[in-house]
């Protein structure tokens, strides 16, 4: 086995071990949480992780920065609550139907908004949130208006609040796992390659035959679907919806900050960012009450990320580790004995081809144990 193969297998094994450790840490959190408040903070962080990962289907793959994704989480939450209240449908089925409804609604929104890029797209995404905020505040007879909407919880009164926190923590973790798996599958597909080509240079991708608008629209709808599911699950856990919070530009900004902080081009970047930002937000709120100090802290954090780690923590850490690894080259030196061993293990067909090549050009293989160079894949 070559050094490259051993290094590749070692990297895969290391990633597998890291994934198992991460899964064990997440699943064991409810049992080690000191009190119900800490457990509720864990639920909030997992909710942020779902929203940030859902946002990353658009931001990470296409490079389109949306500050208005709170529109889809808010719609998912309200649609879930209204379905449960007015139709009596099973809460989990209602959450799924709400996600599908938001995904369908995201199609015409995407068709209209994805025709613009850059700052224009950001403005359109913000405008959508503000429009929905006004609609849900004004339509009091249906949405509860500024008084909010109380959502029935899916578990009966016999289930105490700490146990509900635990159940919803695992439900958020399951939804996060599905979103991460979907992101991972897309990342390794031909569709994902097309999306990343759009992110790097959309005009070149279109010139090479990539159906850029269709690809962007699919990623946009998938992102809206998972964001709506995250909003619906939060509504069932929290039990109360306020349009000012649900349709807040600040929520969309948190999604962007979490993804940028962890690394929008990495699978677990939004999750890492959600852990850091979610904990920081809850800490500042707990320490400084109703003040807006947490907004100042988040602004400073965003500025530091943009200045010193524009690609995020995970890419920065990966680049730092790569500096201490042996540099890969496209040409490696092998001895004549190693080359002969490679030809022997390649089979009789390779030996016959080699013999034919020597006969054609009149040369022979050197018999000394000198060093020769061989092209190798980097």
Description:
Helix content is 75%, strand content 4%. The chain is mainly α and 378 residues long. It has a two-stranded antiparallel ribbon with strand order 1-2. Strands 3-4 form a two-stranded antiparallel sheet. The longest helix has 30 residues, at 3-32. The model is unreliable at 363-378 (pLDDT under 50).
Lay out the secondary structure.
Blueprint: H1 3-32, H2 36-62, H3 70-87, H4 91-113, H5 118-138, H6 140-143, E1 149-150, H7 161-187, H8 190-200, H9 202-207, H10 212-238, E2 240-241, H11 243-246, H12 249-262, H13 269-288, H14 293-308, H15 313-323, E3 331-335, H16 336-346, H17 348-361, E4 371-375
Antiparallel strand pairs: 1-2, 3-4
Helix pairs in contact: 2-7, 2-10, 2-12, 2-13, 3-4, 3-10, 4-10, 7-10, 8-10, 12-13, 13-14
Major sheet summary line? 2 strands, antiparallel
Structural class comes to: mainly alpha
Q: What is the gyration radius calculated from CA atoms? A: 26 Å
Helix content: over 70%
State the end-to-end CA separation: 15 Å
Summed up, the helix count is: 17
> What is the 3D shape?
globular
Strand content: under 5%
List the helices and strands in order. HHHHHHEHHHHEHHHHHEHHE
Major beta sheet, strand line-up: 1-2
**How many β strands by DSSP?**
4
- Average pLDDT score: 85
Assembly context of the chains:
single chain
Q: Unreliable segments (pLDDT under 50, ≥5 consecutive)?
A: 363-378
């Amino acid at each position: 086995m070559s050094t490259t193969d051993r290094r590749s297998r070692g990297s895969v094994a290391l990633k597998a071990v890291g994934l198992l450790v991460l899964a064990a840490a997440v699943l064991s959190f409810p049992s080690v949480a000191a009190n119900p408040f800490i457990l509720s903070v864990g639920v909030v962080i997992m909710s942020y992780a779902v929203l940030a990962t859902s946002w990353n289907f658009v931001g990470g793959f296409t490079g389109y920065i949306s500050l208005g994704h709170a529109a889809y989480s808010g719609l998912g939450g309200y649609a879930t609550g209204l379905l449960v209240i007015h139709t009596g449908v099973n809460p989990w089925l209602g959450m799924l139907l709400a996600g599908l409804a938001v995904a369908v609604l995201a199609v015409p929104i995407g068709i209209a908004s994805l025709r613009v890029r850059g700052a224009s797209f950001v403005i359109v995404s913000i405008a959508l949130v503000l429009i929905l905020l006004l609609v849900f505040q004004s339509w009091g007879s249906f949405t509860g208006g500024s008084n909010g909407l109380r959502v029935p919880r899916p578990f009966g009164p016999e289930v105490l609040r700490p146990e509900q926190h635990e159940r919803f923590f695992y439900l958020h973790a399951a939804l996060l796992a599905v979103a991460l798996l979907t992101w991972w599958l897309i990342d390794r597909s031909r569709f994902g390659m097309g999306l990343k080509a759009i992110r790097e240079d959309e005009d070149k991708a279109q010139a090479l035959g990539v159906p850029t608008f269709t690809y962007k629209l699919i990623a946009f709808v998938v992102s809206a679907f998972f964001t709506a599911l995250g909003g619906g699950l939060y509504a069932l856990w929290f039990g109360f919806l306020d349009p000012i919070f649900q349709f807040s530009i600040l929520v969309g900004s948190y999604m962007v900050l979490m993804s940028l902080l962890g690394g929008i081009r990495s699978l677990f970047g939004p999750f890492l960012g959600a852990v850091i930002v979610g904990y920081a937000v809850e800490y500042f709120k707990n320490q400084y009450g109703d003040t807006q100090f947490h907004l100042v802290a988040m602004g400073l954090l965003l500025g530091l990320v943009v200045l010193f780690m524009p690609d995020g923590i995970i890419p920065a850490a990966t680049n730092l580790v790569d500096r201490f690894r042996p540099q890969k080259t496209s040409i490696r030196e092998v001895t004549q004995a190693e080359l002969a061993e490679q030809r022997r293990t390649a089979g009789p067909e390779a030996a016959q081809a080699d013999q034919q090549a020597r006969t054609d050009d009149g040369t022979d293989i050197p018999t000394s144990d000198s060093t020769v160079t061989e092209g190798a894949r980097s």
